[in-house]
Amino acid sequence: MRRLFRILVRFATAGSVVLFALAIALWLRSYCVRDRIDLLHLPKAPSRIDTSDPDLPLPMSQYDEMYLGTFPGRVDVGHLDYESPYPAAAPPTASFALSWEKGAVIWDIDQIDRYTVSRLGFGVDWGTHDGLISAPRHVHGVRIPLWFIALAAGLLPAVQLHQFIRRRRWVNFGVRCAACGYDLRATPERCPECGKVPVGAPNETAVGAGAGRRRDGI
Q1: At what angle are helices 2-29 and 146-172 packed, to 10 degrees?
Q2: Which of 21, 31, 101, 125 is the most exposed place for a label (fewest CB within 10 A)?
Q3: Which residues make beta-bridge pairs with 36?
Q4: Residues 6+ apart with CB under 8 A from 20
Q5: Tens digits of per-residue pLDDT, 71-99?
Q6: What letter does residue 202 receive in the DSSP assignment?
Q7: Is the full-model pTM beyond 0.90?
Q8: What is the residue extent of each domain of the chain?
């Protein structure tokens, strides 16, 4: 069980290191380029006709969109759902569409796109906004500073590095096992946890023979 736990911790640490590096890269990039990634769910058929004129039917359909965008030092993640005219002339052949747009940095995003709650670079948005032809757009999103993501992702690797340095220090004193970190003060000849024989540990046979000679001498 302990071995499985150590494996899981190693995987979590590796994932945290990757997330830390990604957050730092996005943090630096966000001051040069504005990125916007959208994953749009495309409907296969119109949902209803939204017009009072029977001669001008306007087929509408429901769209769902997941988005991720970067602004100077921050990242926006959220979900949109809205109604939009259905492209009857060229219906979509796929169920999802992924797009990545790059543009100029928007420095005053807090003035242009006001979140429902916004404090110290953090933000939470929920509400309904007017969209195309007054169709409502329901928004649910969060805005997070990239320094906070980097800090949170770096905690576990920092703890693991501290424990590694501390364990190596105790290993050099012969107190801990070099393989698993088990306390060897009661069993310096061999680690009872993993079976590893510490470097420089007295050989069990030699220890037994020395003990026998001492008894014979007595």
Answers
A1: 140
A2: 101
A3: 69, 101
A4: 150, 153, 154, 157
A5: 999 999 999 888 777 766 666 677 888 99
A6: P
A7: no
A8: 2-150, 173-217
